[in-house]
Amino acid sequence: MKADSTVQRPSKKRVVIRVDPERRAWWKETMSNLLPEMEVFLWDEDSYCKEEINYAIVWTPPHGGLARLPNLECVFSVGAGVSHITDDPSYPWHIPIVRTVGPPLQQRMREYVALHVLRIHRRLPEIEAASKAREWKQFVEPVAGDVMVGIMGMGNLGTPTALTLRGLGYQVKGLSRRGRPVDGVEVYKRDDLPRFLNNLKILVVILPATRDTDNIINHRTIHLLPRGAWIIGAGRGTQISDSDLMNALDEGHLEGAVLDVFRQEPLPTNDPLWKHPKILITSHTASAIEPSVGGKIIADNLRAFMEGQEVPDLVDMTQGY
Amino acid sequence: MKADSTVQRPSKKRVVIRVDPERRAWWKETMSNLLPEMEVFLWDEDSYCKEEINYAIVWTPPHGGLARLPNLECVFSVGAGVSHITDDPSYPWHIPIVRTVGPPLQQRMREYVALHVLRIHRRLPEIEAASKAREWKQFVEPVAGDVMVGIMGMGNLGTPTALTLRGLGYQVKGLSRRGRPVDGVEVYKRDDLPRFLNNLKILVVILPATRDTDNIINHRTIHLLPRGAWIIGAGRGTQISDSDLMNALDEGHLEGAVLDVFRQEPLPTNDPLWKHPKILITSHTASAIEPSVGGKIIADNLRAFMEGQEVPDLVDMTQGY
User: Between chains, do A289 and B143 touch, taking CB under 8 Å as contact?
Assistant: First the structure.
């Protein structure tokens, strides 16, 4: 055996995982199986040196935690959003972040938005109430082609969602930073917000969380929507002003809302959003996927990053999403 | 003025309308406006001679009524089904019938089935219950690509519906008399019913009402579905055995049902279907359209028939649909 006095470098790349406590054993086993060429540790374990960690797979890491890993090469977010990582003021911004999206999450979001747009348009809450009350009641609404839906955020979740709604026959408008065109969808730039909002029956918010989008749905923008509109919130919980939303529902300007994301999750039991009769809470399930599917996407992204291949879900660190 | 001793023939074609009493004034006005070249009467008016009627636009005409119009050339059903006409034992079978379908009704059915398939698949009833109970509860289901939906009846409503579900990502099987192939959908013939049913999570019944399809969904066929399946009934009310359905729900073989059509409509207030906790009643709204849209389709069909043009929704009188 050859003697070597320099610091011993581990032969395998090392990964640390920081997820919900209930699921961490499962994550460790799954990622160890998916990445047999690496060593996998849990965040709170004592058995690794911070200096040896190359990759971190995280959900809501504690502030300062990632900055203490000096040889970190890349961070993988367990989810499509990354604000749970970048809201750490000490986040080392030179370290790239990869979001977890991929076809399964896009599929989930398409299903979720299609379901709730159809539910609103076809007046399912009223039909369910009539069924419970044993009342024969026939509602006739306009066909989908006469219903205007707006997708706020035409990224890799918003674009396939907009196309799915087109396929169902809806009229669809989109809003994105650059206003890049999408087939069959009228896409507006951010500064065209009033024109985007002015005739929507249903506004779907799938924006990423950035400083720009904080409280972007507020008293003023809600009142740019026509009376009787609905809001579906499936981006981040910071984008909608809860109190402005509830006021607009109470005064009848908005007819209803479906919310999937919140400032604090799980949404605290005493939060007034729970009690509002015109709000349906869907507990962050819009684009939920089976953990094994998410694990597979992360393993593929991690290996692609390591091998220098293109990683489409790499976050643009100048934009923060 | 030229004297003429023969029976006077009216110069205009004459149409009689038999619809719900509440809407008949509206129908008369609408059809008179849409068909200015004809004379339009209501069924119960005294101002027309039975001998002079050329066309009848009807919903549930009284038995024997159409047989008493000796110069009738064609009957137009206010709806996609025609059994409300052909179940009259005295119906004069040499008189052709035209159904009212067309793109708006197909669009409605696509919306309805997409909504209820998504609602079942994405477990909306449980999510709504959790929201009402203020419980943060995350459900993770398979993606649409792992959910098998079966469309029973691949006609001009079933086929576009099947394609819509494919577009949403579902696996789709179809059942039709001839088993005519449809892109991306495995279509079975009627005698292959067991193979069609064996792995469906959701069975959608959009069959026409014929003697063949009476009670086609019964104890035996329900138990060819896997445990935990759902049934959406949007064809005719005669196709599902209500008691077999409720038994299968009670014993847990079926998880739930959504019913749009019934043997008697409106469904009587004391019908046990109303009270069943696993059944959602949607009061024959699946492919409901605004009456003005229906009126327009009928006027177009009537004029096409009169001018000898092709009428795609002409009923095949040998099949009864």
Answer: yes
Cα–Cα separations (whole angstroms), residue B186 to B146, B149, B155, B181: 15, 11, 14, 7
pLDDT for B212 equals 84
CA atoms within a 13 Å half-sphere pointing along the CA-CB vector of B186: 14
Contacts of B304 (CB under 8 A, 6+ apart): B310, B311
Active site residues of B: 236, 284
Q: At what angle do helices A158-167 and A102-121 cross, to 10 degrees?
A: 50
DSSP letter, residue A185: B
For A85-116, write each residue's pLDDT tens digit: 999 999 999 999 999 988 889 999 999 999 99
C-alpha A123/C-alpha A151 separation (Å) is: 20
What are the structure tokens assigned to A320, written together? 């923060």
Q: Is A284 a catalytic residue?
A: yes
Q: Does A178 touch chain B (CB under 8 A)?
A: no
Determine whether the interchain pair B138/A269 forms a contact, defined as Cβ–Cβ distance below 8 Å: no
What confidence tier does B8 reach under pLDDT thresholds 50, 70, 90? low
Q: Where are the alpha helices (DSSP H) in A58-209?
A: 83-86, 102-121, 124-132, 158-167, 193-197
pLDDT at site B5: 46
Which residue from B51, B90, B89 is spatially nearest to B73, judged by alpha carbons?
Answer: B51
CA distance A6 to chain B (A): 49
A111 to B137: CB separation less than 8 angstroms, yes or no: no
Of the candidates B82, B29, B37, B74, the residue with the CA atom closest to the CA atom of residue B56: B74
pLDDT tens for A252-295 read 999 999 999 999 999 999 999 999 999 999 999 998 877 788 99
Q: Is B72 within 8 Å of B52 (Cβ atoms)?
A: no
Which residues are registered as beta bridge partners of B171? B148
Model confidence pTM above 0.90: no
Cross-chain residue pair A288–B138, CB shorter than 8 Å: yes
Token pair, residue B199, equals 């792995």
| Per-position b or e across B147-179, b if 16+ CB within 10 A of its CB | bbbbbbbbbbbbbbbbbbbbbbbbbbbbbbbeb
Q: For strands A55-58 and B171-176, give the pairing.
A: unpaired
Query: How far A128 CA sits from the closest chain B CA (Å)?
Result: 7
Partner residue facing A138 (CB), from B110, B142, B288: B288
Residue of B110, B143, B290 lying closest to A104 (CB–CB): B143
Whether B149 shows a pLDDT value over 90: the answer reads yes
Residue A72: per-residue pLDDT: 97
Pick the residue of B135, B136, B147 with the most A CBs within 10 A to test the interface with A by mutation: B136
